[in-house]
Amino acid sequence: MAKAGRTAVVLPVADDEEPWTDEEVEEVRSELLADIARMERAIQVAQAGLDSLFSDGAETAGRDPADIGSSNFERDQELSLVQNARDMLDQAKLAYGLFESGQYGWCENCGNPIGKDRLLVFPRATMCLACKRREERR
């Protein structure tokens, strides 16, 4: 049953899959929103840690080279975490935008259904498994 004020969303399925239930559609929608909120929080936390590392590393004169190297390594790790969280946030926002526009569940590469099973496991997916595998082989 659709939530009050929301029209029922019809998502595509692969040939061998059962149609989406309203509960499954709502589960995916909620998961996307939770991913967005979680990634925004992760970025804030990682950015705060990164800001701290940058301010701590401002005074390097007279410091042991090993300490400087260790600080640089930590900074690189934090930068990587922030970038990864931003990438995941972008994926979640893209998927949610597709969901809200009625285009969710279609492969952005081949135009076929992504598949209900795949989307239930990985709601941020924008490609079917076959296209994603081809992309990763390149």
Helix and strand string, N-terminal first? HHHH
Are there runs of 5+ residues with pLDDT below 50, and where?
none
Mass-distribution shape: elongated
Report the structural category. mainly alpha
Query: How many distinct helices?
Result: 4
Overall strand count: 0
Strand content: under 5%
Cα radius of gyration in angstroms: 21 Å
Helices and strands, with pairings:
Elements: H1 22-56, H2 65-101, H3 116-121, H4 129-137
Helix pairs in contact: 1-2
Describe the structure.
- The longest helix is centred in the middle third of the chain and has 37 residues.
- Helix 1 runs antiparallel to helix 2.
- Helix content is 63%, strand content 0%.
- The protein has a domain of 83 residues.
- It starts with 21 loop residues before the first helix and ends with a helix.
- It is mainly alpha-helical.
- The chain is built from 4 helices and no strands.
